[in-house]
Write a structure and sequence with these properties.
The structure is a homodimer. The first copy, chain A, is mainly β. Chain A has two helices and ten strands. Chains A and B meet through loops of A and loops of B. Chain B binds a DNA duplex through α1 and β7.
DNA sequence: GACCGCACCTGTCCG
DNA sequence: CCGGACAGGTGCGGT
């Protein structure tokens, strides 16, 4: 893969009516979107082959200190509709290394300690602007109407979130699909969600790896920098 | 006029981008659209002469047991903007026959007991799918982008509602114009809205006749089958 | 600025 | 118990 491989996730944009978000100064995106097509809603999304290696990943810790979705993954399943069959809670050691689908090189992007709103009825996850603009850049071409981001948890279970910019609140959010993730993973406020991406794959999917978190978070901050030894 | 007169309301379709609603199996629509043109929003609507006889009608009961908009109608006014001058609550006998514009043959289509949402801030009325597809069929030609349906209350006052299909919720709704009706008629949750159409007129307008409802609805059902003697 | 219109979204309920 | 229908929401643009 070429060095355009900085694209952190597989996505495609769709044209829309809304205004543009603040342009990300990062120029390290673009390209690498395989097989995009327009879906019913008018968003673009992508189909792609099973990842050649692990793409980016999202891990989420909860206070229960156990690894969620620990059973061996069903890697490579990328149908539109995720089966809802793997909300098992098989701890695999809890505070272990939590490398998700094992042995895969990942680059840590950022973490967020989810707020009550993130796991509540609003059905959205606010992505801190700094990280959103760095890792999930939206611009006038990719923006507008939102993106369908493809994620994967550590079992390889696919998750698809709509990602967009809300002009009214000037914030970046994951919306559609997020609530299902919250429910299945039994995410609670205070849990940590960790975004990672595959190092090798240029535009790989983003994995979701659910994992438990230390209840005691690093003191006095909610800022996402809890890169505890990943 | 001819027997294609089964078209229950005067309407015209507009092309749009969204996907089609489930095709109505009813074949008793089509034809009979006079003088359609496309408006600014891209919907098609129709202008037509003042009804030769009463078309379909929509009656709405409220729990106050009085006939709303009982003063003699201003028949034949079909400007785009209805005057807001007739929200009088002159009972004309309350639970009487409520024949609306008197002596006109009407075919009852269906009733709906409006929900809080139907009369609340959402500014829309959900049309139960079964009735929507039977009486207000949208297909690929008439669908897509919505319809402007012309109604008339029992005074002959015209009402124009946008009618469309929401893909995301798989439901049919009246949107634009509905809130004005709710406001003028002082519709409340639990009130009944009755849709009727003229028997004689092939594609007549739909009348809106507001009338009061029995507070006591038929037991244990919310299903619209309260065809109480109309 | 408030409200309306519009297109989404989702949980819940019910057959 | 599963899927469809829909009640109750959202953001957002336009007026």
């Amino acid at each position: 893969m070429s060095s355009r491989g900085k694209l952190p996730f597989s996505h495609a944009a769709a044209s829309s009516s809304s205004s543009s978000p603040p342009l990300s100064s990062s120029s390290q995106h673009k390209g690498g979107v395989p097989l995009t097509y327009q879906n019913q809603r008018g968003w673009l999304e992508n189909k792609f082959e099973p990842p050649r290696e692990e793409g980016s990943s999202l891990r989420c810790y909860n206070r229960a200190s156990q690894l969620m979705n620990a059973y061996p993954g069903n890697n490579g399943r990328y149908g539109d509709d995720a089966d809802e069959d793997d909300d098992v809670r098989r701890g695999d050691g809890g505070s272990g290394n939590g490398s998700g689908s094992v042995g895969v090189e990942r680059e840590h992007m950022f973490d967020k300690v989810v707020t009550p709103s993130d796991v509540g009825k609003l059905n959205r996850l606010v992505i801190p602007k700094q990280h959103a603009e760095k890792y999930f850049p939206l611009d006038s071409s990719t923006n507008e109407k939102g993106l369908l981001l493809n994620f994967e948890d550590r079992n390889g279970k696919p998750w698809r979130f709509r990602y967009s910019y809300w002009n009214s609140s000037q914030s970046y959010v994951m919306t559609k699909g997020w609530s299902r993730f919250v429910k299945e993973k039994k995410l609670d406020a205070g849990d940590t969600v960790s975004f990672q991406r595959g190092v090798a794959s240029g535009h790989g999917i983003i994995n979701i790896v659910s994992r438990s978190s230390p209840l005691l978070l690093p003191k006095h901050h909610h800022a996402p920098s809890i890169t505890s030894g990943w």
